[in-house]
Amino acid sequence: MDGGSRRGSRQGMDPIVRRVGFVTPGTEPEIPLQQVVLNGPGQSSPAPVIIPPRPIIASSTLSQEINSKTTAALKTVTVDALKNANIEASRVSEDLTLSSSFGGSDRSGGEAVSEVPASLSTVTTMVRQVSIASASVPAGGFAGPSVGLTPAPIAASVSEKAAIGGVKEKPKTTRAERKAIQEAQRAAKAAAQGGGKAPSVKGSVAGGGDEKKGGGKPAEPKTPKATPRREGSLAGSEKKPPVPAVRMQFDDKDRVAKATKKNIVEQTETKNRVELFRHLPQYVHGSQLPSAEAKFFRVQEPGHPHPAVYQVGLRYLTGDIVGANARCVAMLLAFAEMIRDYSTPPQKTLVRDLTAKINSHVQFLTTCRPHAVSMGNAIKLLKTRILKLPGHFTEAEAKKSLIEDIDKFIQEKIVFADKVIVDHAVEKIREGDVVLTHGHSHVVEKILEAAHARGKNFRVVVVDSRPRLEGKALLRRLLQKGLKCTYTHVNGLCYIMQEVDRVFLGAATVLANGVVVSRAGSAATAMVAHAYSVPVLICCETYKFHERVQLDSICSNELGNPEALVDVPGRKELTELQGWDKNDNLQLLNLTYDAMPADYVAMIITELGLIPPTSVPVILREYRKESNALELL
Amino acid sequence: MAVRWQAQGQPAVTDEWLSQAANSRHPPEERPSVRAHRLTGDLRDTRETANMSVVEDFDYWRGKPDLAVAVAAIKALTAVIKRSKATTMMGLEIELKRASEELKEREKSSISLAAGCELFLRFVTRTSALEHEDINAGKERLIERGEQFSEISIKARQTISKVGADFVRDGCTILTHGVSRVVVSLLKLAASQGKHFSVICPEGRPDGKGIQTARELTAVGIPVTLILDTGVAYVMERVDMVLCGAEGVVESGGIINNLGTYQIAVVARAFNKPVYVAAESYKFARLYPLDQRDLPYDPKPVTFAEPLPPNMKVDNPSRDYTPPSCLTLLFTDLGVLTPSAVSDELIQLYL
């Protein structure tokens, strides 16, 4: 795996504050000296810990240090596994992490016997994970530990594992040797902790990225981190707290590799990516389309998306369908089509199979283009509807009700909502006003047209921004309708803002803290408007509201095609950026969205009325109440 | 978000009132004045004939010194229900809607009136959803509620006084603006609690509302300094808090009040002084002005000591809009709210 080297070094630098900003890749930090290299196949990941000597085979009895023993045993397993050259590097590293978390568990278990049961259960869960992981390891990849030594629950799962791999007798150890191993491990751990590695609870608290980053780390350095992580998994299996789904972090090679395996559309990542935005997918544009098109007619293949969905996916890919509403409607219509053609396979239930099917379709759409919040909310609704289908429904009835639900969603939440928003917003345009808008929001377009149709006399300033220049389409349509327009680019904002009375903007989503995520450039527009005390009105249907809180536009965004920045229309002589991907010192960043703080927003116009940005949580709460009530019915 | 003073778990304004109405139906010892007032009201209602128009009715109630505009409006609308010959709740609703339009037409720019009408209509809709089959029961319920409204309004005022008086500290200086029944009752309550504080009243050109407030407060022994409206910034450095009433509280959490409130709030913000607003929850209006021009324009006549040259324009709008960013807290009968909580209440009421 080519990602190995980067991952490895990232781990080395992980405890240090992550570098942010536009850092050139390639200047990898030095690997700390104290690290002893544990070489996996093709992996040069550093492990700043002394690996205990290989245990010498000897017979022993089941002692109270079960915990440490299993650790040792598993360590052997993984060390053995490491020696096995035919295992994928990623798998190994994953197993290593698991074993390292055992290392963490014996810290307490080895000292107090009373704690053994607790940590035992942990061990069991972990072992279960190991066995899951090893299920996909090629045969012969695993050497099982001696079954006789492990306590019953572990034995069960471990033996499964042993059955998968070529069974190799686990070397038995004497008590003295085990003690030695334990001591060594403790020493190692102490060294690891003493070596300036503060226990990072981050892994479980900060969620997402960190936890997964842990996936590829080799053994011992992770011990402090492993403990919270294990607890997290324990809590997860027992209580299942409502943890929001973790977004894919694209700087996590492991996960990306796993995810891309399932992908139908081939994505090639671009080389020169901006450091700060590595967690976002950045593909070479144009590379996916031919392969995707070629696969269009392989409908018969299992797991191939429904043609309607496939078509929508391709249109996302080509940029044919843009805008949160348009994409959401297109997706929903395609799903309706899919449900219409759906028939439950034998020995499967509609509820489960259809949900799985929708999941795989959503995944396909996401590979075409990361999905918008609007789509996420619609998908969530569709899935709850599927789950809440009355048990006595026949397949035809179920399909009919689902299609009706989809239709209702589109009509109520989008079409009708837009009408109401237009009605509300038109009231806010006064005679003689100068209204400014940025980009091309369809709702704003409707508002301006409606205000014009109602005989209001006002002027529109369309602010546009490179590279999409979406404002031109809006401008054309407004001019066709006979509105008075001014067209300018973001560069002219400060100048033009002096004469503006109102700013109308659309939104991709509005978050719980009032932050509005919108087309890149909108935040700048809002900021300038705020500076000139011009009220900024956001037009957004409530189905686009989201519980998430976001403070910047970095952690969640979408990277557009960097190639779009290269050419300047009408300026053929500007060739400085040609061949930018050959230059390691140059990255291009084409962000799609940005986040404007609630302070800059005077009002959000929704179908439920005019609300201040501070009231988004109220709407979310009421809306949830409403949907809960519906579900109870 | 909202610091709830009353933890009754009743989110909507209407529910709040309903419970208050229920409580006041069997009062342990009724305030005699109120009862007398209600009696006269009842007497009048029995006297009145079917040919009274809603506007005349409103004007009658408006003449009462103790009644707020919204209360008068609701009284007038209740009379409409009494006269109504509608046979369905739907018909009654339409009739009421027409009457409230008439009222709003009568005093076009009054936010409080509009809010009162809208609130009552909202209650009617909710009742008709409740009692859709029996018009008489519905009517009775509405009338009962309308009757008790003035009482509820007085109760709300008491609640606000109680909540807000805690914010008045010993030895503090309070800047008020205009005349507000709630503010006066709040300050009186604080004074009766033995707190020593002084009040600064801007004069309130041209109708001298500040002088009216000053007079009322001096009567109960609160030291008052009367200043010119132009002297607000001058006194602000020794002011501890600004306290004013509101004609309407809008969805953004800002307030609409008589002219000069905004400038006082701006000066107070510049000095980092808290601005408190005392307002009953029936003044919460479904309005969302973005700037001053969004308000209904309603200039008042103004006289000048010197004769003005001809062709000189004189502009004296009667009210201004104070955005929520200039306000600190709102004292309402729902509790002490931050400006952002207003929209919460409004959404729950009208959603």
Q: Largest sheet of chain B, if any? A: 7 strands, mixed
Order of helices and strands of chain B: HHHHHHHEHEHEHEEEHEEEEH
Shape of chain A: globular
CATH class of the largest domain in chain A: Alpha Beta
Output the CATH topology of the largest domain in chain A. Answer: Rossmann fold
Secondary structure category of chain B: alpha/beta
Q: Give the percentage of residues in beta strands of chain B.
A: 5-15%
Round the Cα radius of gyration of chain A to an integer and report it: 29 Å
Distance between the amino and carboxyl termini of chain B: 19 Å
The helix content of chain A is 40-55%
Whole-number mean pLDDT of chain A: 70
The order of strands across the largest sheet of chain A is 5-4-3-6-9-12-13
Strand tally of chain B: 10
CATH architectural category of the largest domain in chain A: 3-Layer(aba) Sandwich
Per DSSP E runs of 2 or more residues, the count of β-strands of chain A stands at 13
Count of runs of 4 or more consecutive helical residues of chain B? 12
What would you call the quaternary organization?
heterodimer
* The CATH architecture of the largest domain in chain B: 3-Layer(aba) Sandwich
Pfam families (chain A): IF-2B (PF01008)
Keywords (chain A): Cytoplasm, Initiation factor, Protein biosynthesis
Organism (chain A): Klebsormidium nitens
Family (chain A): Belongs to the eIF-2B alpha/beta/delta subunits family.
